[in-house]
Amino acid sequence: MSEHQYPGAGQQFAWQPPQQPTATQPTTPQPVAPPVYPGYGGLPSPTIPLQERPEPRRGGRLRIGLAGLVAGALIGGGAGAGVTALIDEPAAGGGTSASTQSVTIENPERATTATAAAAKAAPSVVTVYVSSGAGAGSGSGVVLTADGYVLTNNHVVAGDGGSTGTVQVRTADGTLYDAEVVGTDPAFDLAVLRLADAQDLVAAVFADSDEVQVGDIAVAIGAPLGLSNTVTDGIISATGRAVATGSTQDDATVLDAIQTDAAINPGNSGGALVDGAGEVIGINTAIATVASGVPGGQSQSGNIGVGFAIPGNSAQRIAQEIIQTGSATRALLGVRASTATDDGNREVGTGAEVVSVEPGSAAEAAGLREGDVVSAVGERPVTTSTELTAAIRSQAPGNTVELTVRRGSGTRTVEVTLGTTS
């Protein structure tokens, strides 16, 4: 089957609300309780020490398709229930920093920033093919090391029940490699592959994703719909965007994402989002799509200019841990929360209300208790439980954060040293 014929390019073949990729039926990004991951697939539900209470679904037309996330996650743990639904799609992946590559630009008088960025980064972006008895699909990935480690989305390689089929990877120069899954982290929707007998690959260079600003140039590189080496450009639309993806509350994933209007479609999942210098700032993972107007329908539109990427700094940390130990850790607050709403309008969130506190957790040690409403993490406002999950998820285990908490009629600040969970 030719690459462009892979039905669920970039999607996970076992993903359910979105259709599974099959040889005869193309798949669309997974809906995240509205976000959609470009390379969609069903994410196994991660276990989060802190779970959010499922929030009632609101009637919305926007869905996040996987490219791959599910809304709702335990605060500081794996994916969980109770997150606002959006549609995300799998997007691009990332890699570890490497020495600067020489870039040759033909017709420099007509070259643009995107031209130079693509010339530098494209050799480090690969197409990932996955097949099993359930079907076949493709996504994207980013080369981390010259000897064959590649970063992609978990939903690109995870099959039904978390199993993985046969994985192959084609590099930008057309070489096809057999690959094995080194490890995955469903909560971050990341997976690391190792290519057999690979050498002299072009490793991606990572920029500091904390320095990304709204309005910066953004270039997405991957294999949307199986079309390898596809480049699209746009800008950074937002940073620190709390995005919940997935098809059900049971397979929810919450990301602290970078939002971009660079075109991302199914198959872009696991690919690279790079800056104007061609350095990776994020791993494309999900896209928002417009849901079908048919009641109960699951069909979605393609790119509408709202895509999401996992920040490069988080992706690198997780990838390095997986390479070293086979798994990754996450920061843990240790509470379950639901969205507190305005008395006059239940659609307006006013914070994350603590539903329960885990015994022995960081939250208990800091004195948090049931009924407290967290309205900020550091200087970052929190209006929903999903935003609290994303803010905690963006931290590394052991970090100390300051929470702004409403208790009764008063407001206080609380310092919490975050725990860890795998």
Mean pLDDT score, rounded? 77
Helix content: under 10%
Quote the distance from N terminus to C terminus. 38 Å
The helix count comes to: 5
CATH architectural category of the largest domain? Beta Barrel
Number of strands: 24
Largest sheet: 6 strands, antiparallel, barrel
Q: What topology, given as strand order, has the largest sheet?
A: 11-12-13-16-15-14
Q: Please tell me what the overall shape is.
A: globular
- How much strand? 35-45%
Organism: Blastococcus saxobsidens (strain DD2)
Protein name: Peptidase S1 and S6 chymotrypsin/Hap
Domain PDZ: 322-409
InterPro entries: Chloro_Bact_Ser_Proteases (IPR051201), PDZ (IPR001478), PDZ_sf (IPR036034), Peptidase_S1_PA (IPR009003), Peptidase_S1C (IPR001940)
Give me a quick take on this structure.
With 422 residues, this protein is mainly beta. Helix content is 9%, strand content 36%.
Which descriptors apply to this entry?
Thrombin, subunit H; single chain; 5 helices; disordered N terminus; 422 residues; mainly beta; 24 strands; 6-stranded antiparallel beta barrel; Pdz3 Domain
Secondary structure blueprint with pairings:
Blueprint: E1 30-31, E2 35-37, E3 62-65, E4 87-88, H1 113-121, E5 125-132, E6 135-143, E7 149-152, H2 154-157, E8 166-170, E9 176-185, E10 190-195, E11 217-222, E12 230-245, E13 253-260, E14 272-274, E15 280-290, E16 307-311, H3 312-325, E17 330-332, E18 335-342, E19 345-357, H4 362-365, E20 373-377, E21 380-381, H5 385-393, E22 400-407, E23 410-417, E24 419-421
Antiparallel strand pairs: 1-2, 2-15, 3-15, 5-6, 5-8, 6-7, 7-10, 8-9, 9-10, 11-12, 11-14, 12-13, 13-16, 14-15, 15-16, 17-24, 18-19, 19-20, 20-21, 20-22, 22-23
